[in-house]
Specification:
It is a single chain. The chain has helices spanning about 1-10, 15-25, 40-50, 95-105, 125-135, 145-150, 170-180, 185-200; strands at about 35, 50-55, 70, 85-90, 105-120, 160-170, 205-220. The chain is of the alpha/beta class and about 240 residues long. A 7-stranded mixed sheet has the order 3-2-1-4-5-7-6. Helix 4 links the parallel strand 4 (about 85-90) and strand 5. The termini are far apart. The relative contact order is 0.21.
């Protein structure tokens, strides 16, 4: 891991080419219709690359971008037609066969199931200080890679890693603190995070954060439809 962080250190500050390459890799290195199973900023990056993006999940509460479709769902059932998407990106690979079967169902032949994880370089002085202020959110359990391969629904997993820099302005730092701090992150804690930002950005106006990005993907085992009328590309239903 340290070697990859060293690669980021040699990269130009503020560049995110590695992140863009990884996002393209997650969807199969092509323009795609993408189902993102979390309401995160990854949707914006996918849309900027020209992909059709649908964000779905129980956490969907509002439309955050006019370039993205948002669908609130309940439970493991995905309210979309079969063969609707070229890529499904999930926060974490599941070990639940019902969930995996649903994800495989909505993928087209040749489509990919992907996940993205990231580690942050916490050796940076300001990041160490942030941990003193906001604490640390418990790490999620390891992804269920063995279950995905054993399901018979997907081809063997592929993985890739990239290290990259990110420039954080104040809103981005506050969001980073909310996502990675000890939950729940209170308003008083965020006030101290604002003070940390002011103390460390007198000259630059932003903070630099190094990420180690890990991508995982598996292609669905499915034959293309050979004949008969095709269903609509996507059937969107909002479950209330």
């Amino acid at each position: 891991m340290s070697e990859l962080f060293d690669q980021a250190a040699r990269s130009a500050p503020g560049t995110d080419e590695a992140h863009d390459r990884l996002v393209k890799w997650l969807v199969g290195d092509r323009l795609a219709c993408v189902l993102l199973l979390e309401d995160s900023s990854l949707a914006f990056r996918l849309a900027e690359q020209g992909h059709e993006v649908v964000v779905a999940g129980e956490d969907v509460r509002t439309v955050r971008s006019p370039d993205v479709l948002y669908v609130r769902t309940v439970g493991p059932r995905l309210p979309f037609a079969a063969d609707a998407f070229d890529a499904v990106i999930t926060p974490q690979l599941h070990d639940d066969q019902t969930v995996l079967a649903e994800q495989a169902r909505v993928l087209r032949a040749g489509g990919v199931l992907s996940s993205l994880a990231r580690d942050h370089d916490e050796t940076l002085p300001w990041v160490r200080r942030l941990r003193e202020v906001a604490g640390r959110r418990p790490a999620p359990p390891a992804p269920a890679t063995g279950t995905v391969e054993a399901s018979g629904l997907f081809h063997p997993l592929e993985t890739t890693e990239h290290a990259t820099w990110e420039e954080l302005d104040l809103p981005a730092l506050l969001q980073y603190a909310r996502e990675t701090g000890r939950q729940p992150v209170e308003d008083a804690t965020l006030s101290r995070v604002r003070e940390l930002f002011d103390q460390n950005t007198a000259q630059s106006g932003s903070l630099r954060l190094r990420h180690l990005l890990r991508g995982t993907r598996a292609r669905v085992r499915k034959e293309p439809r050979s004949q008969g009328p095709q269903p609509p590309d996507t059937l969107l239903l909002e479950l209330r």
